Amino acid sequence: MARTVAVIGGGISGLAAAWELTRPGADVQVTLLEGSDRVGGKLRLADVGGARIDVGAESVLARRPEALTLVEELGVADLTTHPAAVGASIVSRGTRWPMPKGTVMGVPSDPESVRGLLDDDEVQRLVHEVVEGAREGDLSVGDLVDARLGPAVTDRLVEPLLAGVYAGHAREISVEQAVPALAAAAREGRSLTDVARDAVAAAASGPMAALPVFASLVGGLGTLPELLGARLAEAGADVRTGALVRELEADGSGWLVSTGPTTDVRRERFDDVVLAAPAAPASRLLRHVAPSAAEALATVEYASMAIITFALEGPVPPELDGSGFLVPPTEPLTIKASTFSSLKWPWLAQAHPDRTYLRASVGRHREEASLQRSDAELVEVALADLRTVLGEGLPGPAAAHVQRWGGGLPQYAVGHRARLAPTRDLPPGLALCGAAYDGVGIPACIASGRAAARAVLTRVGSARTVLG
Ligand SMILES: Cc1cc2nc3c(=O)[nH]c(=O)nc-3n(C[C@H](O)[C@H](O)[C@H](O)COP(=O)(O)OP(=O)(O)OC[C@H]3O[C@@H](n4cnc5c(N)ncnc54)[C@H](O)[C@@H]3O)c2cc1C
Q1: Is residue 245 within 6 Å of ligand 1 at its C-beta?
Q2: What atom of ligand 1 comes closest to residue 12's alpha carbon?
């Protein structure tokens, strides 16, 4: 009889785990248990002013293989699309500056490339990098960059780029976890600018150099989980939404999983479990079966945010140019970024030529106050900020949509990797995956989901078949 595996959580990590478990050769009956009414987690489409558009994650790093490989396996590689090469900008001291080319998470490889965005004294400080000796141990990205290149580089370059990934603060985020190239420079006592120069040169000459950096799907990235859910069902997986897992208990060599309302709990036995829920629910479920892992996960904090999407009447107004802009926390604005979706994604402009779509994001780690507004107030604040940056002539929207992401992005605080060591030491037949561990980006989540699936397959002895 096929072994039974429960995958708890139907975000991209859990879906990737379930997909790996249903590959030919794995004799496994998969049940995907998703607590909400839809699969996809942070990948989501919504109707805004007549278009179905991403209101969560919108693109994947194309220079890692995992997301595009999955798209290929699903047979929809022809829907892969890339952002138009129109360039983004960063706001500094009230002016938009072209996004400097050739940085490693905001650390410039050429100080001249950031003149203007940084003032002359700040550039001078950057040129005279203070290279200390080699240092052991983790530290925050911001503390490293402050000491080496001066706080202006952290505030005006690193912060907006890191916030785009983590919605966090550079002076709290682990350099080891978030920017390994800079962590290596610290360990080896090398100049950050030199490391950035090497990384940029390597990227420009490597095998991926000619490829676009980012990708998405025509129709939006939110179509990916919808398709995965459907393909999993076709492959025989039992994909259940509205199936919030309340409890996980050990049962001999297997697991008892409880779902459903407290008045009508359904308890089922599975041979193996892949737990793909975010840190807080994962911690609660692991309380009795892996207490050290549960404790470690309880320390992972999350940033909440909101994406406000606007549909403007008519073609792209002259105020919009490029793909959008980032806002450092030093600027007196509430929004932290804006994407000019109709300019960034040609498929969207072609599908909806009579409307212009753009979105803005609000919310950084521990700054929930910025989100304590009604949807109407968020729309108003975002529009006012957009007009401050782009000009008062920006037309009012025909439609607006607010998507809140409470607990949207895990924060990799300094020491994250070491602190989460207990999550790598689990009872057999139990594996964890998701954004909380080794990367918040979608390719990293897919990698973690597939690795968790292989970990449970290894226990049932079929991993070799699956891995070929
Ligand atoms: C607004 C936003 C924009 C982003 N943009 C990008 C981007 O453009 N590119 C990129 O690479 N990354 C982006 N990210 C990050 C990336 O989307 C996420 O890190 C990733 O999707 C997380 O996937 P996951 O499956 O690990 O977790 P989630 O998407 O959080 O999925 C976890 C799932 O588990 C379910 N769940 C929780 N508890 C239980 C339970 N007890 N029982 C059953 N189910 C449960 C939840 O309902 C959820 O569906 C963005 C994130 C956000 C918030």
Answers
A1: yes
A2: 25
Let me know whether 292 and 428 are in one domain. yes
**Element (DSSP H or E) covering residue 423:** none
Question: What does the pLDDT read at residue 464?
Answer: 31
pLDDT, residue 193, reads: 94
**Judgement on whether residues 442 and 403 belong to the same structural domain of the protein:** no
Low pLDDT (below 70) residues in the chain: 460-468
Number of domains in the chain: 3
Q: What is the pTM of this model?
A: 0.96
Q: Are residues 313 and 380 in the same domain?
A: yes
Pocket test for ligand 1, best of 31, 42, 226 (most atoms within 8 A of CB): 42
Does residue 200 form part of some domain?
yes
d(CA 77, CA 73): 8
For residue 90, which of 105, 79, 71, 78 has the smallest C-alpha distance? 105
Residue 460 structural domain: 3-37+222-300+413-467
Mapped onto helix, strand or coil, the DSSP state of residue 117 is coil
Is 368 within the bounds of a domain? yes
Same domain, 133 and 256: no
What is the predicted pLDDT for the residue at 461? 41
Report the candidate in 126, 263, 140, 247 with the shortest Cα–Cα distance to residue 193: 126
Helix axes 12-21, 442-460, angle to 10 degrees: 40
